[in-house]
């Protein structure tokens, strides 16, 4: 396998995490998502819930506000510490062998390696809302709100730490619309691409 | 073949047109690029050179200026007439059977069909400049200038007529970085995707 490491960024409700799981299974490689959260919790002493809530999501409603959250004596906020811990753990995990990593700005953290395939999964608002409704038992209104808020927080976090724009074509080797292509076909295509 | 029509949008120097040609060959379907120019020239009476120069490229340096180019008594500019003629020809061509269409906002013109695969091919500025240098015998400086100007004009034209942003993830079913994936692998992946 030429592409040993696959990072998957995804819009909420696009099925990106599911695609990542299936892809790791089919390639027979490690899959990291909750694993990263557990390790960050262990290393930093924060609870898993806290890491999950803050590790990938901005608590603020704007990038401007995000830049000014409380700082310690080294000028670092809790979010900065979590980002640094996550980056270190991702760099450690990829040393262990081929894997699929979902979220957590892994595409940026591993941007200088040539053995990675950076993937972005997106879909139309209608298809995503439908998936959220079905999977999480939400109403249509709740689904749309959750989708918007989650992606907004993800993009603020990503844009702040990477100086890149979340979901911009040039950050990724491949982007796929899971709504028009189909989730199983996305997995099939990515298996082919991982082979190099 | 479930995806009967494949539209390819591409950054200048990314090899998108070459990928389109190879893809059409491998799928055994029609390939339209210069063909569209010839038909527009025939229908409108403009020369092929004129259609090629104006049909996909804004003559202006900004979207603002583009909106105010000379208009006829119906309020239409020459560019508006060319766009309308191109759209009509693309809609006619796809009635003939499966095909690959490169450029000319075909993704937008055919956006409501479900039998299309909309593709965007991009690459890093370094890789594109290298390809332009090799293919067109330009210096590095000339290559970078040509690349920037061509894509700027393409994006202004596209953004003006489609109300979408050229190269934005959500316009396309799939985007591929030909520089990291490799041109032949892009063709292979797209052949797989066209099968549905």
Structure at a glance:
By secondary structure, chain A is an alpha/beta fold.
Report on this model:
Two copies of one chain form a homodimer. With 196 residues, chain A is an alpha/beta fold. Helices cover 54% and strands 12% of the residues of chain A. Chain A contains ten helices and five strands. Chain A has helices spanning 16-27, 34-44, 48-54, 63-66, 78-93, 106-109, 125-136, 140-162, 178-181, 183-194, and strands at 5-10, 30-32, 99-102, 116-122, 174-177. A five-stranded parallel beta sheet of chain A has the order 2-3-1-4-5. The longest helix of chain A is centred in the last third of the chain and has 23 residues, at 140-162. Chain A is globular and about 50 Å long. The N and C termini of chain A lie close together (7 Å). Chain A binds chain B through residues 120, 122, 124, 167-170, 172-177, 180-181, 185, 188-189, 192-193, 196, and chain B through 120, 122, 124, 167-170, 172-177, 180-181, 185, 188-189, 192-193, 196. Strand 5 (174-177) of chain A pairs antiparallel with strand 5 (174-177) of chain B.
Largest sheet of chain A: 5 strands, parallel
**What would the average pLDDT of chain A be, to the nearest integer?**
89
Oligomeric status of the shown chains?
A: homodimer
Helix content bin of chain A: 40-55%
Overall body shape of chain A: globular
Q: Secondary-structure element order of chain A, as H and E? A: EHEHHHHEHEHHEHH
| Secondary-structure-derived class of chain A | alpha/beta
Strand order of the main beta sheet of chain A, please?
2-3-1-4-5
Q: Give the beta-strand count of chain A.
A: 5
């Amino acid at each position: 396998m030429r592409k040993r490491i696959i990072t998957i960024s995804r819009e909420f409700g696009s099925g990106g995490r599911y695609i990542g799981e299936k892809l790791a299974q089919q390639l027979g490689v490690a899959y990291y998502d909750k694993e990263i959260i557990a390790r960050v919790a262990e290393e930093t002493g924060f609870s898993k819930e806290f890491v999950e809530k803050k590790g990938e999501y901005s608590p603020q409603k704007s990038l401007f506000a995000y830049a000014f959250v409380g700082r310690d004596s080294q000028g670092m906020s809790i979010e900065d510490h979590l980002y640094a811990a996550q980056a270190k753990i991702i760099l450690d995990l990829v040393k262990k062998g081929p894997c699929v990593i979902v979220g957590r700005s892994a595409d940026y953290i591993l941007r200088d390696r040539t053995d990675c395939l950076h993937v972005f999964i997106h879909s139309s608002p209608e298809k995503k809302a439908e998936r959220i409704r079905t999977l999480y038992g939400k109403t249509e209104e709740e689904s749309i709100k959750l989708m918007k808020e989650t992606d907004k927080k993800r993009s603020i976090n990503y844009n702040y730490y990477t100086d890149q724009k979340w979901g911009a074509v040039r950050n990724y080797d491949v982007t796929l619309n899971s709504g028009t292509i189909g989730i199983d076909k996305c997995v099939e295509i990515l298996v082919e691409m991982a082979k190099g």
